[in-house]
From TrEMBL:
GO biological process, one term: methylation
Keyword Ubl conjugation: no
InterPro entries, A to Z: EF-hand-dom_pair, EF_Hand_1_Ca_BS, EF_hand_dom, SAM-dependent_MTases_sf, SAM_O-MeTrfase
Organism: Aquisphaera giovannonii
Biological classification of the source: Bacteria, Pseudomonadati, Planctomycetota, Planctomycetia, Isosphaerales
Listed name of the protein: O-methyltransferase/MSMEI_4947
Biased composition (Gly residues): 81-93
Alphabetically ordered keywords of this record: Methyltransferase, S-adenosyl-L-methionine, Transferase
EC number(s) given by UniProt: 2.1.1.-
Residue ranges, compositional bias (Basic and acidic residues): 61-78
Region of interest (Disordered), residue spans: 23-43, 61-109
Residues in EF-hand domain copies: 38-54, 65-77
Signal peptide: none
């Protein structure tokens, strides 16, 4: 590995393996046996990073590149109490599929296994600005926890968020209505829903959602806004009357790309709505409860 590559690897390693409070409080820290870079990359535990271990560091970092695009994004990097690689693979505090929100949850049955396999395949294709794994896990849990029967999604893309919703809807006996303007992405989404075994509970609506979504006249349990950002406030205005009291309005990209300020104002100032912002270390999601 050349010097530049090592410097990048070291910076990334330092960023994801920042000292714990324990280390800051005087426990072993940088330069000592508790040094996070040593913990992550010093395979033979001799307290020194050898040239071979330095070379191997890049490969270890690449293991986190879930979508194999050659880059590491925040949702691919380990996070949480153990900060991922602390203690090395398999060591104490390492995030696994079981406890890392950035990784798919463990499937509970064959249906979930099939959906997760479809998601993994979808993540290997064009990603556009699809939800991250942590985003998707949250969408699914929120939909399932409110027993959503009718989920309306604006912005299907290739169907990743739709697959997460479908996982919830399999349990609730509900249905997803998902709208997109792009026929190419819709074709991929259709195939992904088929592959995930959920095409029977998904209705794809092709066209400009500013027009197609207003055809909805049924109560909505959960509305997910993830299409054109400048249109978020119009979508809210048009569909809020159909969201049932106690229903949820979720919106993606509340941090990046820059959110629509009219939408933020609408969801944070209305006395009928309560909003919180989550997963803001990634794209960011707003969770808005329609109270009345
Ligand atoms: C960020 S992607 C959606 C990602 C998807 N929700 C996911 O996480 O898998 C945004 C999508 O909105 C669609 N879109 C943009 N403007 C639209 C409009 N006016 N009507 C319908 N879809 C639109 C785009 O074609 C694109 O597929």
């Amino acid at each position: 590995m050349n010097r530049t590559a090592f410097a990048i690897a070291a910076m990334i390693g330092a960023a994801i393996l920042a000292p714990t409070a324990q280390e800051q409080a005087g426990q072993p820290g940088r330069g000592g046996p508790g040094n996070p870079l040593l913990q992550a990359f010093d395979s033979d535990r001799d307290g020194v990073l050898s040239p071979a271990e330095i070379d191997a560091a890049a490969a270890k970092l690449r293991e986190h590149d879930a979508n194999k695009d050659g880059r590491l994004t925040a949702d691919e990097l380990p996070r949480g109490p153990g900060r991922g690689m602390r203690g090395g693979p398999g060591g104490p505090g390492e995030m696994t599929s079981a406890n890392d929100p950035g990784k798919p949850m463990l499937p509970k049955d064959d249906g979930e296994r099939r959906i997760l396999a479809a998601l993994e395949q979808a993540r290997g294709g064009e990603r556009y600005a699809n939800v991250s794994t942590s985003d998707g896990r949250l969408l699914r849990e929120l939909a399932e926890s409110i027993g959503a029967k009718r989920v309306v999604e604006l912005g299907t893309s290739t169907g990743e968020s739709g697959l997460w919703f479908a996982m919830a809807l399999r349990k609730t006996g509900g249905r997803l209505y998902t709208h997109d303007i792009d026929p190419g992405r819709i074709a991929v989404a259709r195939e992904n829903f088929r592959r995930g075994g959920v095409d029977d509970i998904v209705t794809i609506v092709e066209g400009d959602a500013h027009e197609t979504a207003t055809r909805n006249k049924e109560p909505i349990d959960l509305l997910f806004i993830d299409a054109d950002k400048e249109g978020y406030d119009a979508y809210l205005r048009d569909l809020l009357p159909y969201v049932r009291p106690g229903g949820l309005i979720l919106a993606h990209n509340m941090r990046r790309p820059a959110p629509n300020p009219r939408y933020i104002e609408a969801i944070t100032t209305s006395p009928d709505l309560d909003t919180t912002f989550v997963l803001m270390d990634g794209a960011g999601i707003s969770i808005t409860l329609k109270k009345h």
